[in-house]
Amino acid sequence: MKIRKIAPKKFVRIYRAGLLASSCGLVWPAYGLESNNYFDLTLEQLLDTKVLSVSKKVETVAAAPAAVYVVTNEDILRAGVTSIPDALRMVPGVDVARSDSNSWAISIRGFNSTLTNKLLVLIDGRSIYNPVFGGVLWEAQNLVLADIDRIEVVRGPGGTLWGANAVNGVINIITKHTRDTKDNIVSALGGNEETNLAVRHGGALDNDGAYRVYAKAFRRDASHSPAGGDAYDKWDGVRTGFRVDWSDKFTLQGDAYRTNTLQRKPNFSLTPPYAAVTNQEIVYEGVNLLGRWTEIRDNGAQFSVQSYIDWARRDEPLNFIDNRTTYDLEAQYNFAAMGAHELITGAGIRFMADDKTGNRNVSFSPKQLHSNLYNAFVQDKITLAPERWFLTLGSKFEHNDFSGFEVQPNVRLQWHPNQTQTLWASVSRAVRTPTPVEEDLTSTLLTAANARAAFVPNDDFKSEKLTAYELGYRQQITPTLSADVATFYNDYDYLATTSVQPVQLINNGVDPLHILIPIKFTNDMTGKSRGAEAAFNWSVNSNLKIALNYTYLRLAVTALNSEQESAELLYPKHQAGIKVFWNITGNWTLDGWAAHVDKLPGGNVDDYTRLDINLGGQLTKNLRFNLVGQNLLDKRHREFGAADDINAAEIERSIFGKLTWSF
Length: 663
Description:
The chain is mainly beta. It contains 6 helices and 37 strands. The protein has a 22-stranded antiparallel barrel. A 5-stranded mixed β-sheet has the order 3-8-9-6-7.
């Protein structure tokens, strides 16, 4: 097939559209913003577009040998979501459960919790995985959604390219190039559950450069408590930042933010009151700065260097203060084509300085920690038969101060029977490295007059390990219908557990004489999971697009203590979703998103169906109005956690209006 020649500015927009086609998602126009008419592009054109995919190099979206789904800016705007977690609900294989007003449990292919430690998340290549807690604190990532270009979701191990903790998947949030934001936008949102105000200014610089600056303030009301009344989980925050690009060669960007969240914490005791509840306000703030330089040489080789510094501080009064600075430097070289070989290599170093100050019940040894991470990777895509068979071999090599040397290899085979079909298979290994909480923490759980039960350090805690087997199929069935199916079998070793150690008598001259019941983090569990994910994209006509997806997961874990096998009860076995985008007229759109999520026996959470509807209208050339309803089928429902937990919350129906002024 030959694709018509495209003007440079339009090519940029079609480039973004093609990314979503790689996952059989949908791509539509964002009315009221400068946009190419995506409804005019056929699925075949989108699938032939060349993009940067999971291989960290340019390839056609149809040929990506992995389970990939991409949520574009158009998806985000037309779905009417107000947060990144809600945007991720549209991705097959991703479980998004709102725990309360200010926190989410998000995972891929099992092991969900509010701190999912087997999922690596990045923003423009900067890791936001918290190495102390082990997971992502989503309440600190309230970005301006209009500035997000796309969210790439790789389901399955990504350790070969991205390193440790990319066990079950990788989420990379990519913001727009500043050449696409040379305007001004003021957006105001108000409703019964949340309000926010965002402003952005962009412009051009000399020598093919462009810039933008932004600011956002938001507030979310408390959710409903299953016990009655409001839960103690309000949150608010502010965020500001900038980005500057000089052509496609150099990028400099940075952000600063502060978030305040409310939470309750129990203080357990063997004497009255046995579980006193204390209210606390958690403050999360940070600043980051990132620079990236890319050179594309005449022979097709490409060299890039990226570096960032990230300071983050989380003050949880009843636990500890995590004050952390991260310095990261990495380089990548894509070699020019060498016959049948396409070789990529890279290396990096990360230095982290932690200062963890706890209260009298929480301490770390050492309290201040300087740690280093060194890594290198190499990957070779070998053409076995031109345009038909390809073999990809690669591995990541890392050394960290917690678990030592780690190797994460990857083998992928792909076959293209014809121009409309791709069949791929892979075997991968990935690891989740220990955290200071698991190796260095001392934390009292229960107290009595002369006894206490407490977590104690364990220097022998090992990395969790995964061996994954995947098989996928992607087809352009007709010019208006495409399908993407992925299956997997995961084998886990050394999964984290806790165990009670022999009782000790403490007489160290510092603490009062008492009996200590020590509890350690250990690796006494294994697990196996299998499942399938399917996505279908149908262009009904030039003004109506429909996407369907379905996910099945079966997880089984075996632990020395069977009471710790709850992970298999905290992930829905079945999930299904449908997305409908409709251009009513040239100025009005009606978009809907519905998803059904199976029950969670571990928290006694019932199955539920979520329905969101977004009615949008272009009132003037520069002013757009949206009326959005979320969770329309239920007045409120729980999505995660036990009903008797002191922080349990029911997510309520939300109605809000939004005005966007662009000029």
